[in-house]
Amino acid sequence: MWGGAFSVGVLSAWSAAGTRPQFDVVTGVSTGALIAPFAFLGSAHDDTLVHLFTSGVADDLVATKFPVGLIGSSLLRTTPMRRMVEDFITQAVLQQVAAQHRKGRRLLVLTTNLDTQRAVVWNMGAIAKTPADRTR
């Protein structure tokens, strides 16, 4: 999570300096996948990022289950992640991601199934598109 906090600090400082660009492509893995949608959407979401990484929300995501790895399919508790996604990746955020995707910008995140060692790249803009958009 420290790397995430550093990234959020850099993005916020860049916004404060007034020199933060609009990125054509944003990618993320692990903590970066949590930051990516908000970095993609720009400085209007800096307050959300700062909140995630200073309020303890992100810290809750890495709390391990006890005993570690002996019960269930994950070393980490899934409830905090589900709650964070439900609270912060709102319909409005998804609509904004889809709108930027239609303009040619791309938001990609990577997840890995540790059991199969298979990585998957998710095109979040394509996923966020509304049913009407999918017919275009």
SSE order and pairing:
Layout: H1 2-17, E1 25-29, H2 31-41, H3 46-54, H4 57-61, H5 79-88, H6 91-102, E2 106-113, E3 118-123, H7 124-128, H8 131-134
Parallel strand pairs: 1-2
Antiparallel strand pairs: 2-3
Keywords: Lipid metabolism
Protein name: PNPLA domain-containing protein
Domain PNPLA: 3-113
Concise account of the structure shown:
The protein is of the alpha+beta class.
Write up this protein.
This protein is an alpha+beta fold. The protein has 8 helices and 3 strands. It has helices at 2-17, 31-41, 46-54, 57-61, 79-88, 91-102, 124-128, 131-134; strands at 25-29, 106-113, 118-123. The chain has a 3-stranded mixed beta sheet with strand order 1-2-3.
For the structure shown, list the relevant keywords.
alpha+beta; three-stranded mixed sheet; about 140 residues
Number of helices: 8
Helix content: 40-55%
Strand order of the largest sheet: 1-2-3
Number of strands: 3
Average pLDDT over all residues: 81
Structural class, by secondary structure, is alpha+beta
Radius of gyration: 16 Å
The end-to-end distance, rounded to whole angstroms, is 39 Å
Order of helices and strands: HEHHHHHEEHH
Sum up the overall morphology in one term.
globular
Q: How would you characterize the largest beta sheet? A: 3 strands, mixed
Multimeric organization: single chain
